[in-house]
Amino acid sequence: QDILRAREQFKKLQAKYEEQIKDEKQKVIDAGGLKIIGTERHESRRIDNQLRGRSGRQGDPGNSKFYISLEDNLMKIFGGDRVTKVYSALNVDENMPIQLGMISKAVENAQKKVEGRNFSIRKNTLKYDDVMNVQRQEIYSQRKQVLDGMDLSEVISNYIDWVAETTVETFNESDEKGNFKLNTEALSLEIFNTFGFNMTEELKNHSDDVNYIIESLKEKAHQKYSEKEKEIPAEQLREIERVVMLKVVDQKWMDHIDAMDELRKGIGLQGWGQKDPVVQYRMTGTEMFDEMIEAIKVDVVKLLMNLREQKDLRRTETAKITKAALASINSVDGGQSALENPEVDRTVRRDTPKVGRNDPCPCGSGKKYKNCCGKNQ
């Protein structure tokens, strides 16, 4: 009913205003309708056609005419110099209007070239965006699962195994002869920083068996995380896992977007090396994305493994202020304390009038105060 009433009201208003503008509309029609005058041609034919379309709405009469100069940017860039040479050779007056199909054809060809160039730019931009689109879909799908309350205990367990393997393999260094040797000191420090426990003795005793160290590290890490599940209620720990995962993913993803923007700015230089910038952007972007995923795993494991519950958390004073110290701070002239005598006036009053730097010195030397007694002040 409301829609029908609105339609009826609209018809009444339309009839009312059509009656008011009836005479003016007839005058415009008798004059030939709306005339569009264009002072230049746009680089896109679509824009010109939209402007022409303003002159003949809903069957009303009208026409359009465009004026261009051989010095317009569109003509300068695309073949306008040839037309200029022709008219210069014919000694045609500058003020004489030129109406030839050759010029219209030249303008249309210039517009086609610009449209083709713009299409290539959009197509190229789309190729770059497709790289980020794939990465964005993967990150957002994982993020949505976390927001929907997905149980991440299995994911965290896989993260712990992966970080343990990667950490040990990272410090399994090779020498000049190609022999691998475990850097036990650096590995011990890294294990302590990441997992929060010490394996120095075990690393020294089994430095030649990398697989044993990996399995031992996994076992200790899972055992420590199982102890945390006993300290913290399971439901609360699952929520902490989701919060940590979201925080790390969001931070790493924002940093990755900034890094990809910087890569996009300079990837065009790959063309100088006869390499396709889009292909190089896709390859480099994929490598950066893999590095981001690895960094997410490491940070999540590091935060959760070093997680501990703090009970009876209270704000404490950084420095204890005693009554004597407070009295000393608030003391005023005469050694009286503001705590003992609250009526003591805190305002400091001058016993003698203030002497300006350029005033005569009060000592009577005849010099200015800044050159006499006030020299060192």
How is this structure best summarized?
The protein is mainly alpha-helical and 377 residues long. The chain folds into two domains: 114 residues, Rossmann fold, CATH 3.40.50; 175 residues, Helical scaffold and wing domains of SecA, CATH 1.10.3060.
Describe the structure.
The protein is mainly alpha-helical and 377 residues long. It has 2 domains: 1-114, 3-Layer(aba) Sandwich (Rossmann fold), CATH 3.40.50; 132-306, Helical scaffold and wing domains of SecA (Orthogonal Bundle). The protein has helices at residues 2-20, 22-30, 45-53, 73-77, 80-89, 101-147, 153-170, 184-195, 200-205, 210-231, 234-266, 277-305, 323-330; strands spanning 34-38, 62-66, 172-174, 180-182. Strands 1-2 form a two-stranded parallel ribbon. The chain starts with a helix and ends in a 47-residue tail after the last helix.
Strand order of the largest sheet: 1-2
How much helix is in the residues?
55-70%
Count of individual beta strands: 4
According to CATH, the homologous superfamily of the largest domain is Helical scaffold and wing domains of SecA
Total count of helical runs of at least 4 residues? 13
Principal-axes geometry comes out as: extended
Extract low-pLDDT stretches: none
CATH topology of the largest domain: Helical scaffold and wing domains of SecA
Number of domains: 2
Return the average pLDDT rounded to an integer.
81
Q: So, CATH architecture of the largest domain? A: Orthogonal Bundle
Alpha carbon gyration radius: 41 Å
Strand content: under 5%
What is the subunit arrangement here?
single chain
Through-space gap between termini: 90 Å
Give the helix/strand class: mainly alpha
CATH class of the largest domain: Mainly Alpha
What string gives the helices and strands in order? HHEHEHHHHEEHHHHHH
**Strand count, sense and closure of the main sheet?**
2 strands, parallel
